[in-house]
Design brief:
Order of helices and strands: HHHEEHEHEHEEHEEE
Shape: globular
Distance between the termini: 81 Å
Largest sheet: 7 strands, mixed
Number of strands: 9
Number of helices: 7
Strand order of the largest sheet: 5-4-3-6-7-8-9
Mean pLDDT: 92
Bound molecules: S-adenosyl-L-homocysteine
Structural class: alpha/beta
Strand content: 25-35%
Length: 239
């Protein structure tokens, strides 16, 4: 049995040490509850089941990848503008495209359209290395900064035209486009390893579909559609 003064001491201990510590933990990530809700209500409920992917989505602070004014909507069920005509994709679409790409710890992955850097951060926790190309210099710069500040060390950001891919680092086990070309560029298909997967929104204007291309061990391609999507168009950076 606790003596009265022991109880009193326990309360003081709780008030002085435990409460402030809890407060610190909560204020360290004020969006933890929203992120948990995002994963449950937008992603698990729509059939995304991969345990590793769900763990990564729960661990990645999406709000830090959007402009400060947009943080309150960072976990909402839609894309959010990040400036320069770009958007951070809807959380479910990030999950779906990642699931289709099926990254593994030994994979080297190329992303076209770094934008905020969020998709690259998600991929970096599931693959060995991520190379990502962004055409807008300001976005490439800010994504490089946030990825490095948050400690995602296996991501390399290059400012340039994604239509050219990254020949020095090819072939890639996975290639993901997060801007929509009218058709999948042959250069990128050529940079895909045998046994690799390429995921891309393809089409013009509102008429886009999510495409998965698989290259088998003999180099043959198989293509299937995973439904309608809306992405910003992939710009041509010229010759
Ligand atoms: N994956 C991003 C979403 C990016 S939106 C994220 O997680 O936030 C699409 C991005 O593709 C935009 O930032 C746009 O500037 C970029 N983009 C468009 N055309 C491109 C091209 N040819 N090469 C590289 N990036 C391109």
């Amino acid at each position: 049995m606790l003596e009265r003064h022991d109880l009193c001491r326990a309360r003081v201990f709780y008030a002085i040490l435990v409460l402030p510590l809890t407060g610190l933990l909560v204020s360290a990530d004020p969006y933890a509850a929203e992120r948990e809700r995002m994963v449950r209500e937008q992603i698990e409920s729509r059939g995304i089941r991969g345990a590793e992917l769900l763990r990564v989505l729960r661990a990645t602070p999406r709000h830090l990848f959007v402009p400060i004014a947009s943080r309150p909507m960072a976990y909402d069920d839609h894309a959010v503008p990040i400036g320069y005509g770009a958007t951070i994709s809807q959380p479910y679409i990030v999950a779906l495209m990642t699931e289709l790409l099926a990254p593994a710890k030994k994979h080297r992955v190329l992303e076209i359209g770094t934008g905020s850097g969020y998709q690259a951060a998600v991929l970096s926790q599931l693959a060995q290395r991520v190379y990502t190309i962004e055409i807008v210099p300001e976005l490439a710069e800010s994504a490089r900064g946030i990825l490095s500040d948050l400690g995602y060390r296996n991501v390399t950001v290059r400012q340039g035209d994604g239509y050219k891919g990254w020949p020095e680092q090819a072939p890639f086990d996975g290639i993901m486009l997060t801007a929509a070309p009218p058709e999948v560029p042959q250069t990128l298909i050529d940079q895909l390893a045998k046994g690799g997967r390429l995921v891309a929104p393809v089409g013009l204007g509102w008429d886009q579909e999510l495409v998965l291309i698989e290259k088998d061990a003999s180099g043959r391609l198989r293509r299937r559609s995973a439904g309608g999507v809306v992405f910003v168009p992939m710009r041509s950076g010229g010759p």
